[in-house]
Amino acid sequence: GVPALTVDASGIVQTTSLLTSTDLKASLNVAQGTKILDAQGSPLRTMSTSVVTSPQPAPTGKAIVFAYDFGPAGATFAPSITLTMTYTTAALPAGAKESELTISYWDGAKWVTLASTVNTTTKTVSAQVSHFTQFALISSVAAPVVPPVVPPVVPPVVPPVTPPVTPPVTPRSP
């Protein structure tokens, strides 16, 4: 979970807050003056985060390092807030390049990549988010080496040649 925010009756954040997930892998930096509203347009007073254990499949050639569901669903932020995800190189799939890590969000049909900033020194990836949904840290993966498929050589099946059977001819008597 994430602690409560200090907001006024209009949903304006009163103090800049850094909200962190309990496992410390995801954090939200909400600047003072940001307007945060729930899906009904009411001031948002609390936020939540939970690990998504079975996220939607990653796009082709990509892998999901981990994913979080931020709530409440439909919450909006103006201006956007900063989502930062912290990773370890051990958590990355084989062949992944740290510089190619991105944060994406699930739009209900596909993962949408956000403009992301990677800091390989602090092992963080950050992006600006304007609403809550599922967010994932996504990496590229090395293309699997697939050996060419060589069909086995099968000799053609030739039916045996048999002479045509003709009935015996018996001479007729006149």
Structure description:
The chain is elongated. The chain has 174 residues and is mainly β. 0% of the residues lie in helices and 37% in strands. The strands form two sheets. Strands 1, 2, 3, 6, 9 and 10 form a six-stranded antiparallel β-sheet that branches. Strands 4-5-11-7-8 form a five-stranded antiparallel β-sheet, with no helix packed on it. It has no helices and eleven strands. The mean pLDDT is 87.
Write a brief caption for the model.
With 174 residues, this protein is mainly β.
Helix and strand arrangement:
Layout lengths: L16 E4 L5 E5 L4 E3 L10 E4 L10 E10 L4 E11 L15 E5 L4 E3 L2 E4 L4 E8 L2 E7 L34
Antiparallel strand pairs: 1-2, 2-6, 3-6, 4-5, 5-11, 6-10, 7-8, 7-11, 9-10
Supply the key terms.
174 residues; mainly beta; six-stranded antiparallel beta sheet; five-stranded antiparallel beta sheet; 11 strands; elongated
